[in-house]
Amino acid sequence: MTNLIGSPKHKKLKIINISGGTEVRRRLFSLGIHKGDIVQLDTRSMFRGPVLIKNLSTDTSVAIGRGIASKITVDILE
Amino acid sequence: MFIGQPNCGKSTLFNSIAGLKAVTSNFPGTTVKHTHSKVNVQGRLFNIIDLPGTYSLNPADEAEKVALTHLFIEKPDLVINVVDASILGRSLEMTMELMELDYPMVLALNMMDLAEKKGIDIDPEKLEKKLGIPVIPTVASHGKGVKQLLDETIFCLDEGLKPQQLSWSKDVEDQIKYVQEVIPDEFKKVANDRFTAIKSIELDRLSFNRMLDEISPSLKQRIMEARRRLRNGHGVPAYEVIAAERHHLAHKLFEDCCCVTRRKKSSLSERIDDVIMHPFWGYFILMGVFLSFFSIIFLVASPVEEWLLGPLTMLRESLPDLLGSGGLFYVADGIIQGIAGGIAIVLPYFIPLLILMSLLEDIGYLSRVGFLMDTLMHKIGLHGKSVTPFMLGLGCNVPAVVSTRILESRRDKIMTTLLIPFIPCSARTTIILALVAFYLGPVWAVGFYFFNMLLVAVLGRALSLFFKRPSPGLILEIPSLKIPSLPNMMRKVYFQLKSFIEFAWPLLIAGSMVLGLLQFFHIDRMINTVLSPVMQHVLGLPEELGVTLIFGFLRKELSLIMMLQALGVHYDQILSVVSPQQIMVFTVFLNFFIPCLSTVAIIWKEIGRKWALVSIALNTSVALVISFIARLIFIGI
After folding, report:
1. Most A CBs within 10 Å: which of B65, B245, B261, B475, as the mutation test of the A interface?
2. Which of A69, B139, B264, B270 could form a disulfide with B144 if both were Cys (CB 3.0 to 4.6 A apart)?
């Protein structure tokens, strides 16, 4: 188990937990990022920038800032 | 009433029904205001409304609040839920929420072509049966399915067909009923009892809880109890339990009605994304895109400009012979200056700028810039989402200020709004290109831009010292890359051009005319004398330029035209009166000195008078300091 930032790129990841403030969590839910979803880390930008993840079940891409991404824990599936 | 998630093509669909009304792009959040339109379908008059996109019925930013207020208060006769079929799985989550409202509803499966390309095979009939509402596949950008959508809408409206209620897990349903049965009649209900109950459980906010205390303590007790039971049963807060219910329901529906065929390992658009979003090369490409952006505009515009200026200059030269040197001459000269300025100086730069801007928008590059720039934006105390308003600001500051509504926190909104007037809009780009690039060379213009960006960064950094609370961080959807549709692009360019011709150009002509009159009555000298301490002593510029600043407040382009008229020379003879260094200093000052009238007005409207005044003060003082420094560097004491 690791967080989104520490996980390898282009691997299937299962979201185990999303911590953080209520508003941030609600926002993630409404953008289709939920606990239990299978996602993939596409890009991790330089200088502590955001990460780009893709939800593999809905095929949507979302850019998430470092701070928020570090609060999302995932399991590496493959 | 059209409602759907951002960037699903509501506005495009709306336009294909209502004609050219709403602006579209491949950018979540293009529509931040609602658009009304009356249309005649089969001899009946309908009032249709295009709402800003919203990801859910829990508003996070102001644009979404606009959508919800309309949805709840105006109680539409029918809701057309537009969804992006290529991301149906997620879009259905909001469809679930909309169905809870129990309004008559039609689902438009938009962007079917994109879904097919992605290998998603959707069965609309099956979906229709499961949801109990008409489901119509459409491709709004090509007008496909629009007629059928209208037919079904009218049918649905006449029959009053309502969606089926999909039920959730038993324990969640139990809690909803538990709350639902005690909702008092005098309670301000939204749509129906069930929806009100669900929202009450979901809306776990302090202000809402306090409001409940006042209205009905017994109801509050029930709601709190329901939330507690859900939390205990599932180990997560109640709102998350409900969000998960919708998520699972939507996901199940998606799996039941769609068949995703395995596609090639990665599509072309994904491969392109890997390159343009690359953590390292992405920035090179970004730089390249911007450099070519401005070089193309300059390369197209400057020959056209020279070519157009010739005949117009000749016309002006022949004026004294025709009209003598009385008041009539000054008026006519002013009018010709205004017309010439519009045709020869503004339009050659403006049109290519608009076309390229809408190209970048429609492809979907702008939101990628948001991703790439997030790191940098953090350094100045904001995050990547503020890039949207900034980029729009390159076109015009007014829509840029309006678009700050997509930002969730007020802190970000105020900071971004204060910085927007420092972004060179198309009018100012025109000035930079027409003065700096034309007289000092394109390299100087690019340098000017880089300096400008640096200034925004420094100011942002400085402003963030005043706003203690940190920014909440970036969560931004990256829409898939799309091939832009030419009609849509042209439509956008047409809209902006139309507003320039209808609004700015007359002002330009009237402004030149007024200046002509001022010169005739020697009033301009008084204004110049008043402003001369600043112009001459601080900036080291000719006194005559003072009066142009007044017009610059109305429209930035006016200053450019006025400058020629005030100095009494033609565009190609400017260097005989002022030095290139002075042009540089003047451009610097003009660029930053005060947001134009419309920008001030919109800032006032969006975040209040206090901040509008702050913005004016900030711009003017920064402009004075920067151009004084520029004077020291370029001209000397």
Report:
1. B475
2. B139
